[in-house]
Amino acid sequence: MVAARGQGETVDLAALLAAGRLDCPLRHPDPAHMHVTGTGLTHLGSASARDAMHADVTGMTDSMKMFRMGIEGGKPPEGVGVQPEWFYKGTGVMATGPGQPLVSPSFALDGGEEPEIAAFYLIGEDGTPHRIGFSLANEFSDHVTERINYLYLAHSKLRPASFGPELLVGDLPADVRGMSRVRRDGAVIWEKPFLSGEANMSHSLANLEHHHFKYGLFRQPGDLHVHMFGTATLSYADGIRTEAGDAFEIEAEAFGLPLTNRLTIAADDVPQVHVL
Fold first, then answer.
1. Please, are residues 89 and 143 in contact by the beta-carbon 8 Å criterion?
2. Are 229 and 70 in contact (CB under 8 A)?
3. 18-41: per-residue pLDDT in tens?
4. Strands (DSSP E) along 41-186, which ranges?
5. pTM score, two decimals?
6. How far is CA 171 from CA 79, 133, 135, 175, in A?
7. Contact between 55 and 123 (Cβ < 8 Å)
8. Contacts of 19 (CB under 8 A, 6+ apart)
């Protein structure tokens, strides 16, 4: 499509980003037809942070069991491998652009970053998923809620997520190296490198894609999917407790401009149910 349309005029992406004029790489005109999802425990080392959240459980935690399943069967030489952990973030309503605030609900116990790679897919008229490209992602989550009980993972993931600013078309590099940091009042209070790409993962991309799109629900013509592939790095695991106004920064050379968002806390936004 790019080759057919031509590249057009050169623009200053950094200036557009600074001016708040860049959005997610792709959106659906109807947010209800944009699905935001992801997988967890997919990266080498990703089990340690998760396992620590549930260390009071005697014996091997479910997180560690799931991680070991991926190590042993997430990259089959042929055929289908073991299915990963899967979670739902929401519809396109949850998709947040670079520079836009990540809004934590009033009832949330935490709002923490997760630096990840996301892929964008458009479902064709015959139900075939077409991968368009990859972007940086902040899979913003409530880790305190998750820590209460692993069965609260679904609740902890119903939060916004940010994507962009740029879209990497073509293949994802096997070894992606980036940096994730948290700033408070302009100063860096936490910083750590993160690794992604298949060389650093316990599942192949093909296996993760298979287990998402095996469901007919996710192969509806015209729908847009943004699927995140997991991480092994998060500030919460290092004892950081975020506050309103903190800025999350995620960058990786392969993806161009960094993804930056500021944490905000919503006012009391839980409505009462009315009976008709």
1. no
2. no
3. 999 999 999 999 999 999 999 988
4. 85-91, 95-96, 102-104, 115-123, 129-138, 161-163, 176-184
5. 0.92
6. 21, 8, 12, 11
7. no
8. none
